[in-house]
Write a structure and sequence with these properties.
heterodimer, A: mainly alpha, about 0% strand, flat, B: mainly alpha, two-stranded antiparallel sheet, 24 helices
């Protein structure tokens, strides 16, 4: 089977990006907090100067090199899409559908074969979770199925 | 110290439900610790939202049980398979696996069990006797002392923690900035809210912890190359129960190592921010200097030192949280989250206002360590089977679902899930860029205390910064702060001198 393509991101350039991000963040905070009253701006501005200095320091002393070698960007993107999808389902339909979809897709991306076994495990786990939160802990999770069963 | 309350809490812990909760926590901790990729922080991040609907006498024994036993559980796969279950058992794997290869797996597991037990018990006693006394003393702390103490805690994570000090500082400062989102405590002015009313109260702590510790790991597991996830667990290691019971001669031999590692572990644990890894590396380094080349070839002291040190840190790291309200490490920050959602405020007032909870927690640490010994001996042999039995795919999916449900349940809103997801990303990139998460969490927790104490001190002194230097205790803490911050530079120059002297 052909393995999924991956982009190797390791190397010093990511550490340079981190140091530049620190400097950028420091500047952004200084700009955002310039209209704040003195007492509200004191700590953010002090932190902004320090984080900027830290960024400059990291440019010269980056330490241990960042490593993305064992990670696939494609898989990271898929994981992100799954999580964002679950979040959308959470807010639009409910926790039951979102958690079911999240468990199923997470197990599949990790290599568990799709079949009745996985569907059964997913349904049982989600029902167990809905039961624990809704019936046992009195913190009901949202959703049409959970509402019917536990609330 | 209130001895009657201590005894009453001990008695209450031995009643059915609190005891079962503690037992479940210890067993769960050993199991999750022995599964590579899982650890106490992930488990606690997932458990904290579940416990908020539980009574505190059931919630805290469960959390304490997990915290106490997880780092010991990590030694099982480290010894048997050379795969550290948790970061705290990285050094145990060196001599532990060497002993396994010599056919002494049972003996190695026995040393780990005895060492963890001794470290845990001593550390629990430190917590029991030190936390209430320190909290009484801390009631006299003014804002200047609190300000300096928080700065000392942050300087410890920057200067003393392992890794790049600049990255530690970055993590710390990023945490401070994240904590500043929301209404400012002094002016009541909304900061970095960008008009969103969700952000007026700032980022909620528990979903943030779930994201940083739970979802970041899920991201790691899901984005790993499939091939790298496959490990060979097929080898069978014979472990006899009788080998795990140590002879008196070996106990006598290991006693000095236990004493020195216990001392180091407790000192590091009590210090806010220093962390478990510092303790185990320092303890192991002592053994390496003493035994030289024998170290790494199956030396019993090589297992005893890190295992005693890591368990010594566990309970003693709760001393600053329970007595001063300042978490000692990221796991005790999760405990802080648990205390807050139970409606309790950790700090010097905890022992005065809610003594039943405070003493229950400290006694639970002692009892959890007592339970850990027999359960550990029984579970140690089955660790490789456990790792084989649980498919990583289902485990990852279960953690993801638990994180989502927990983040939602804390505030009963989708905003919690959004926060968890956002900080899951942040945690993943922190891990990949070798930026430690603990300073970030510590800074998030300490930022409001620092800001409040600073402005109270300014109000008391009429705006004079020298106020922090005129209070003796505050001055002492600021001197230590300067020393800790200078430590990376000192270490560098000492190393250079050593290289020049010895070539």
């Amino acid at each position: 089977m052909k393995s999924s393509p991956s982009i190797i991101l390791s190397g010093h350039w990511l550490d340079r990006v981190l140091s530049m991000a620190c400097v950028g963040l420091g500047i952004a905070i200084l700009i955002a907090s310039r209209t704040y009253p003195v007492s509200a701006a004191a700590l953010p501005q002090a932190s902004a100067w320090l984080i900027g200095a830290c960024g400059i320091g990291l440019l010269f002393f980056p330490g241990k090199v960042a490593s993305f070698q064992e990670y696939s960007v494609k898989r990271l993107v898929v994981a992100t899409v799954i999580f964002l999808g679950a979040l959308a389902l959470f807010s639009r339909i409910g926790a039951d559908v979102a958690l079911f979809g999240l468990f199923l897709s997470s197990a599949m991306i990790m290599g568990y074969p799709l079949g009745f076994r996985l569907l059964g495990i997913t349904a049982l786990f989600c029902a167990f979770l809905g039961g624990v939160f809704g019936a046992l802990l009195n913190v009901p999770l949202s959703g049409p199925v959970f509402g019917l069963l536990f609330n | 110290m209130d001895y009657s309350m201590l005894l009453a809490s001990g008695g209450h812990l031995l009643t059915l439900w609190p005891f079962l909760s503690l037992l479940a926590g210890v067993t769960l901790g050993l199991v999750v610790g022995s599964i590579p990729g899982l650890n106490d922080t992930i488990t606690l991040a997932v458990l904290v939202p579940i416990t908020f609907a539980m009574p505190s006498d059931i919630a805290f024994p469960l959390l304490v049980g997990v915290y106490c036993s997880a780092c010991f559980g990590g030694s099982f796969p480290a010894i048997l398979l050379k795969i550290p279950g948790t970061a705290s058992s990285v050094l145990t794997a060196i001599d532990g696996y060497a002993m396994t290869q010599k056919g002494q797996a049972g003996r190695a597991l026995g040393i780990a069990t005895y060492s963890s037990f001794i470290g845990g018990i001593v550390s629990s006693l430190v917590l029991i006797f030190f936390a209430p006394v320190l909290s009484q003393y801390a009631l006299q702390f003014g804002p200047a002392e609190y300000f300096s103490l928080c700065i000392l805690g942050l300087s410890t994570v920057v200067g003393m923690a392992s890794g790049n000090a600049l990255k530690n500082a970055f993590s710390c400062l990023a945490g401070l900035l994240v904590a500043m989102v929301g209404i400012s405590p002094e002016a009541g002015f909304p900061r970095f809210t960008f008009g969103s009313f969700w952000l007026f109260d700032g980022f909620p702590l528990t979903p943030m912890l779930i994201g940083m510790f739970g979802l970041s790991v899920v991201f790691e597991l899901m984005s790993q190359q499939v091939a790298s996830g496959k490990q060979d667990f097929s080898q069978s290691v014979p472990v006899r129960f009788s080998d795990m019971i140590l002879p008196v001669s070996l106990i006598r031999r290991l006693l000095p190592t236990w004493v020195s590692s216990c001392t180091l572990g407790n000192l590091v644990g009590v210090l806010p921010g220093a962390g478990m890894l510092v303790a185990i590396y320092m303890s192991y380094d002592r053994v390496r200097r003493r035994f030289g080349d024998k170290c790494g070839q199956g030396l019993p002291e090589g297992i005893a030192a890190p295992e005693t040190a890591n368990n010594s840190v566990v309970a003693s790291s709760m001393v600053p949280l329970l007595s001063l309200g300042i978490p000692g490490n990221s796991t005790s920050a999760l405990f802080l989250g648990a205390l807050l959602i139970q409606g309790l405020r950790p700090g010097p007032a905890l022992f005065a206002d809610s003594p039943e909870v405070a003493y229950l927690i400290v006694v639970a640490f002692l009892l959890a360590n007592l339970l850990m010994f027999p359960i550990g001996l029984c579970l140690a042999r089955s660790a490789p089977n456990l790792i084989r039995a649980i498919p990583r795919s289902l485990l990852t999916a279960a953690i993801a679902v638990l994180c989502f449900a927990g983040a939602f349940a804390v505030g009963n809103s989708v905003f919690g899930v959004i926060v968890a997801l956002l900080f899951g990303f942040v945690g993943f990139f922190f891990n990949r860029l070798n930026v430690p998460i603990s300073p970030f969490i510590l800074a998030v927790v300490l930022a409001p205390v620092i800001e409040r104490a600073y402005f109270q001190s300014m109000a008391l002194s009429g705006g004079s910064m020298t106020f922090f230097l005129t209070q003796p205790l505050s001055l002492a803490m600021l001197i230590f702060t300067a020393l800790f911050l200078a430590w990376p530079l000192l270490k560098r120059s000492l190393k250079r001198r050593g290289v020049q002297r010895y070539g």
